[in-house]
Amino acid sequence: MHCCHLRKIAVVLLSLMFLATARQASAELLFFAGDRTMSVKGHRVEGDKIVVSLRGGGEMTLDQALVVRIAPDEVPYDDPINITASALAARQTATLRENTGYEPLILQAATTHGVDPKLVKAIIQTESAYQSNARSPKGAMGLMQLMPQTAKQYEVKKAYDPRANIEAGVKYLRALLDQFELPLAIAAYNAGEGAVRRFGGVPPFPETQDYVKRVLSLYR
């Protein structure tokens, strides 16, 4: 009886150990020039390109010449899961995040469309906390939380693909900056340009007012 009881305890402990590690996934570390690194789920080589699977979901293509070497990442991480808006809010901080894993995509889109990369990062951090598979209750998708009509306007076929999402989001942000001063452009990104024009300024929506303050705080 005592032996049977100990066996049951051992089974439970093994089960708990399995559950604790079941969601742990291996990863790889990409090394770039200047001691910069990037942790990814994995990679494959296609010609002179390296296609990496991002930890937050989606893929990114890099020139092989940019990558000095690739090594196993010894730090385990959890697979991405669907997270609620409150969980996203809890993960946001008052400091702009660095080395997010999306730096090349952000820099490329920001340079192409003449937008400050720091502003793009402030938008992404506020919108999705860098969760590429984030989806809001209103249907906004991905890193920059593209609404379906915005994704359609910019011909985005895969709204959760980081490259396509950031490219369209920055292009839309550039269009808003061409119409409004910075605080109003940020408000329009959240509430729509129609609402900004209707109220002649930042709309009197608590969500939008808090959004503008959060983005500006991160940006500045």
Gist of the model:
The protein is α+β, with helices and mostly antiparallel strands. The chain has helices at residues 2-22, 85-91, 103-113, 117-128, 148-153, 162-177, 182-191, 193-199, 206-219, and strands spanning 24-32, 37-40, 42-46, 49-53, 59-63, 67-78.
Lay out the secondary structure.
Elements (H helix, E strand, L loop, with lengths): L1 H21 L1 E9 L4 E4 L1 E5 L2 E5 L5 E5 L3 E12 L6 H7 L11 H11 L3 H12 L19 H6 L8 H16 L4 H10 L1 H7 L6 H14 L1
Antiparallel strand pairs: 1-2, 1-6, 3-4, 4-5
Describe the structure.
There is one protein chain. This protein is of the alpha+beta class. It folds into 2 domains: 24-80, SH3 type barrels; 85-219, Lysozyme. 47% of the residues lie in helices and 18% in strands. It has 9 helices and 6 strands. It has helices at residues 2-22, 85-91, 103-113, 117-128, 148-153, 162-177, 182-191, 193-199, 206-219, and strands at residues 24-32, 37-40, 42-46, 49-53, 59-63, 67-78. The strands form 2 sheets. Strands 2-1-6 form a 3-stranded antiparallel β-sheet. The protein has a 3-stranded antiparallel β-sheet with strand order 3-4-5, with no helix packed on it. Helix 3 packs parallel to helix 6. It starts with a helix and ends with a helix. The model is unreliable at 8-24 and 76-84 (pLDDT under 50).
